[in-house]
């Protein structure tokens, strides 16, 4: 009984910190005030420590023995590494999905891509993002590898959700819709090996996407720093 309660407390603290990261109230590069967090949550240090250890393992924070806990900024090396891992894992998921992927799956992916295009036309980035995640989930969801799916989820959260950025880069999102269309056609034709290579070498290629990445993540920060 006690173990279940402790687990519940850890999950509550973990979810709370993720929410604060997502909304941007915990800023990248800043140190956490653990005393203030403990008072705010009304919990002991144990569930807070456990949640922070989990966040560190997932790459969101770094725990320094003497300096405290810092929110990790999203650096270019982290993005490059994340793209390489995501490309490899999503390619593996596509190969694994070859035995179960259906024409209905391809039609559903096409409908989600149409929804993404419509959301862009309406300036609704939240809906675009939700449809984008659902699009990839069609083939990722067919994988029996829970560790693969968990790693993909965490890496995408690091890239897009902590914090969630205001607005979007329309040229990049429109390019992604085009790539999704190409990927859907490959899967619909049963060309899984080619589809896997495409998602790895184009859609999740840092080199192929670098000009968009630099504009989305770093041009804005550079403009702010010069003001």
List the helices and strands and how they pair.
Layout: H1 2-23, H2 34-41, H3 45-57, E1 61-64, E2 68-71, H4 76-97, H5 103-121, H6 125-140, H7 146-160, H8 170-188, H9 192-203, H10 206-225
Task: Tell me about this structure.
The protein is mostly helical. It has ten helices and two strands. The chain has helices at residues 2-23, 34-41, 45-57, 76-97, 103-121, 125-140, 146-160, 170-188, 192-203, 206-225, and strands at 61-64, 68-71. A two-stranded antiparallel sheet has the order 1-2. A hairpin with a 3-residue loop joins strand 1 and strand 2.
Order of helices and strands: HHHEEHHHHHHH
Strand content: under 5%
Quaternary assembly: single chain
- Sheet with most strands: 2 strands, antiparallel
Query: What are the segments in which pLDDT stays under 50 over at least 5 consecutive residues?
Result: 222-227
Tell me the strand order in the biggest sheet. Answer: 1-2
Q: Can you count the beta strands? A: 2
DSSP summary: helix tally: 10
As a whole number of angstroms, the C-alpha radius of gyration is 19 Å
Helix-strand category? mainly alpha
Silhouette: globular
Task: Describe what is shown at a glance.
With 227 residues, the chain is mainly alpha-helical.
């Amino acid at each position: 009984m006690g173990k279940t309660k402790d687990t519940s407390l850890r999950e509550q603290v973990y979810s709370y910190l993720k929410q604060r990261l997502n909304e941007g109230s915990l800023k990248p590069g800043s140190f956490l005030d653990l005393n203030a967090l403990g008072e705010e949550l009304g919990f002991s240090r144990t569930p807070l420590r456990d949640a922070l250890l989990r966040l560190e393992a997932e790459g969101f924070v770094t725990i320094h023995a003497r300096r405290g806990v810092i929110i990790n900024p999203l650096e270019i090396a982290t993005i490059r590494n994340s793209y390489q891992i995501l490309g490899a894992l999503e390619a593996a998921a596509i190969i694994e999905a070859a035995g179960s992927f259906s024409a209905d799956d391809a039609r559903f992916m096409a409908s989600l891509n149409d929804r993404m295009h419509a959301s862009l036309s309406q300036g609704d980035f939240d809906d675009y993002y939700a449809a984008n995640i659902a699009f990839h989930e069609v083939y990722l969801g067919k994988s029996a590898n829970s560790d693969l799916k968990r790693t993909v989820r965490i890496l995408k959260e690091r890239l897009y959700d902590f914090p969630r950025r205001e607005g979007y880069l329309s040229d990049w999102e429109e390019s992604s819709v085009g790539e999704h269309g190409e990927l859907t056609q490959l899967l619909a034709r049963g060309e899984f090996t080619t589809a896997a290579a495409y998602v790895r070498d184009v859609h999740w290629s840092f080199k192929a996407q670098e000009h968009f990445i630099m504009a989305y993540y770093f041009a804005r920060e550079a403009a702010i720093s010069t003001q």
